[in-house]
Amino acid sequence: MKPFAKFLPPIAVLGALTLVPVTGAQLAAQDVDTYRELENFLTVFERVRGNYVEEVDDHVLIKGAIDGMLAALDPHSSYVEASDFQTMRLTTDGNYGGLGLTVGMRDGAVVVVAPTEDTPADKAGMKAGDYITHLDGKLLYGMSLDEAVDEMRGEPGTDVTLTVVRPGRDKPFDVKITRAIIDLRPVKWEVEDGIGIININSFSANAGAEVAEAIRGIEKSLGGRPKGYVVDLRSNPGGLLDQAIEISDIFLERGEIVSERGRRKSDIERFYATKGDMADGLPVIVLVDAGSASASEIVAGALQDHRRAVVMGERSFGKGSVQTVIQTGPDAALRLTTARYYTPSGRSVQAGGIEPDIAVPQLSDPDYFERPRFREADLRRHLVAQEGVEDDVLEEDGNDDPRYAETAEGLEAKGIDDYQLHYALKAIQRVAMAGSPGLAGGRR
Hints:
Elements lengths: L9 H8 L6 H28 L6 H14 L6 E4 H12 L1 E4 L2 E6 L2 E7 L4 H4 L7 E5 L2 E2 L5 H8 L6 E7 L7 E6 L1 E4 L3 E6 L2 E6 L6 H16 L6 E4 L8 H11 L4 E6 L6 E5 L11 E5 L6 H11 L4 E4 L7 E9 L2 E11 L15 E2 L48 H6 L5 H16 L10
Helix pairs in contact: 7-8, 8-9
């Protein structure tokens, strides 16, 4: 999502549409068809308004028509008013009230894309792939996604009971969560075995500056350079484009970071790195999973394409579309899909996601293999990439794969509660011991 500072007044959008070159005959034919469709719409509107069994507010009908129009396009285009508009602002700023869940809709049911780290939902044990069927006993099935999210929001300090269906478990179960102000810390860091771990939870305002500060903090705590860095983007649903560019730039010396390509060939905008790699060429591993989306995929794709980092984990969410927010009134806005993101090598991650260089399952999660992954391709009417996307399959060479050699019980006995992070740290340790100049990522 682009920053709210880039709001466009409606008149600017209408003006842009008139720049498309068409002949007079084409324009006349388009106008006739359009007016015919609008006449049909107004006929239905008047019939409903005059003959429905109960009196209906005109605003309700028009809002419903707008919602239906946008729902026919893709899952990310929407129209919001009043409180929802304010919530959109707050979630982009990184401070809002709620449970701390990123959710989607699948076959009319609410499904968890990812819980946000250190939020009430995360602490209560919610997991990606969970289906939420009821809220305080009220059935959520059949609601729109916005309606379901509204039901889950509430005053901080109030309790809500979610009924959860988790694939792999025989019966639904209830999870009681206390709502709270979700004051996101977009970036956290720590040092383990001489390696800097930078955990990016969201791409809200100032995330780039906080990553730079994390690198300085890691070096200060060690009294020198670390052996390398792990950039953890798991369960990060994305956020502001400028922050994704800024964070990618921190690790790159030069070159393209991402491009936006719109409806017309001329609608291309490219973003480039500036000179200076704050990590000074040290090994970098980027961790992603099915909850890594949008801005997370921009960073992972840029560092992967430039062979600046090795991407580990599992295939990312696949949200590679651009939403421009157009303010249509004091408390209303249109969020419209206007372009696709492309990585420096020209890959669209839309629906396909970022494939890791090294697939590492989260073996420390006992439910890992039972829980399905929910991604962009599972959403109804999802935008497809402009080129075909095929799921890669791990090669079978007949040898035992050390990435799959452990069990959750065995890892717990060893005190390993995050196998993917553990694997990444060991990889950097091996590189440091071998005296290699770095890890080479990128699609091969």
